[in-house]
Amino acid sequence: MTVHPWLDEMITAIESTEDVHLVVPPYTAYLRTVRLVAADAAGRAGLDCEEVSDFRMAVDELCHILMQSTDQLLQLSFSVVHEQVVGRGAATPARPAMLSDLSETIVRSVSDYYELLPEKGRLTFLVIKQASRELVPKL
Question: What is the DSSP string of 92-115?
Fold first, then answer.
């Protein structure tokens, strides 16, 4: 359950699609794998190169905070629905963690929506990036 009812409806629709699930140890050496999977999902959503890079950056920052908070596995999923990509992550925190001001600024500027919330004893994130469709004039 998110803090926005409209988002709950969208997530319900997303959960009926094909998700890619990834479980990684809480070590930064695995961020490369996470970024590759995030980039693949973003590409399948139709995001352009800059948007793919933005989504990867947001996922990287959010996963990094999960990794700082836990010594247990991170559970991640990526969904593609209607030209948008949705990344979700969760971990059981062993210590408090929150985004630094810089990380929060980065995530806010490169995503269309994000949440980082404690939920049922876990630290979770949700991040959404929409493909922008600029009309290119025909020659």
Answer: --SS-----HHHHHHHHHH-SEEE
Please report, as a single letter, which amino acid is at residue 131: A
- The mean pLDDT value of the chain amounts to 88
- Domains, the chain, with CATH or none: 5-130 (3.30.565.10)
Torsion, CA 81, CA 87, CA 88, CA 93, rounded to 10: 180
Q: Determine the Cα–Cα distance for residues 127 and 27; give it in Å rounded to an integer.
A: 21
Tell me the whole-structure pTM to 2 decimals. Answer: 0.84
**pLDDT value at position 17?**
60
Tokens 């998110």 correspond to what residue? 2
Place of tokens 């139709």: 46
Average pLDDT in the 88-100 region?
92
| Distance in angstroms (rounded) separating the CA atoms of residues 19 and 79 | 5
Asked if residue 17 lies in contact with residue 81, where contact means CB atoms within 8 angstroms, the answer is yes
DSSP H/E element including 129: strand 122-130
